[in-house]
User: Fold these one by one.
Assistant:
Number 1:
Amino acid sequence: AQSVTQLGSHVSVSEGALVLLRCNYSSSVPPYLFWYVQYPNQGLQLLLKYTSAATLVKGINGFEAEFKKSETSFHLTKPSAHMSDAAEYFCAVSGSARQLTFGSGTQLTVLP
Amino acid sequence: DGGITQSPKYLFRKEGQNVTLSCEQNLNHDAMYWYRQDPGQGLRLIYYSQIVNDFQKGDIAEGYSVSREKKESFPLTVTSAQKNPTAFYLCASALGQGQGSDTQYFGPGTRLTVL
């Protein structure tokens, strides 16, 4: 069984500030972890994924995430927010069955 | 361009009618998925298929049906048995190889509204 908890359904940051979106997971097997971004009325786009090669994963658009097994976390960060980062972000976990389990999402608002 | 197409983008249905959502991919992927998205609930898996002519139920399959007669196509039918079908429906595909590290690529979605 696997599950994902995203802390904070809404996060607001000022333009240029640090973005931190939290994700904790539960998995009975070594997990694969994903972050996706969704713009309004669009599909999901992969930001980055963890596949055990490295604990710090760099993705597109300046985002990165760090896998911490002891904390069962995979938080998403970006040093400096841009207006174009405003979107909904989903964390997901996959086990050996190749099925993704998604968190409930975090809506990111970037304030000018 | 390779990708996943879903049609139509917006769909309106009267209660009691069945409706079929289209999903086509030209990525040569073996695996295809259907998700339902409701506000504040993330994405929930309806059905998935790892190979042609085979598919499995996901977490919320009741009231839905699928077919996988061709590798590139995975249509979803929302039947009248689905109690609350108004939602955003997303189709995805993946290579279908290896373990759970497969990346799923998503289509643009179909927004279904029941009138």
Note: Chain A has a mean pLDDT of 93.
Number 2:
Amino acid sequence: DTAVSQTPKYLVTQMGNDKSIKCEQNLGHDTMYWYKQDSKKFLKIMFSYNNKELIINETVPNRFSPKSPDKAHLNLHINSLELGDSAVYFCASSLDRGSYEQYFGPGTRLTVT
Amino acid sequence: DAKTTQPPSMDCAEGRAANLPCNHSTISGNEYVYWYRQIHSQGPQYIIHGLKNNETNEMASLIITEDRKSSTLILPHATLRDTAVYYCIVRAPLRSGTYKYIFGTGTRLKVLA
């Protein structure tokens, strides 16, 4: 069974569209994260939720809005997509906010044309 | 935020030890050093972490200098499957037991047959 899963794996869309990426973890973890990996392979934290509560919100445009309907799910909605949003987005989870290990999903490659 | 500096790439012969260096000269006293690796665009995978003392697990060893300004990840017997990008990361505490990973640019390790 996949521990952290993301859908879709690939997403190609046009500028100005709104899209969502879904993430689910079946590890029973309390904390989930979204990371963005740009074309230079640089990974940066975007958001983190602990038991449905937002605990990390880095400098990310307002067009990005995370939603956590329950602690096993953390979705990322992006409005008015721009070319610069093209990247690989990784979801991750950890047992709790202080846990030393994060488990990453397979990533969603978003291409904005 | 503490930052890490790693060589962009390294080669290692199969069966030999791979020693991956990392500089983190601005690390604070309560910031841990973590190592993750990313195999061919999959999600990053946890390897090991440490604060002051050297650490060893089934995957690798971590040697941290006494002044904590640098560390070395050692893969004792590298295999072809160890070919990946290895990230040296500082885990920075935020508030209320929350942490964030600050990823470096990584070292692309190529294990040669």
Note: The mean pLDDT of chain A is 93.
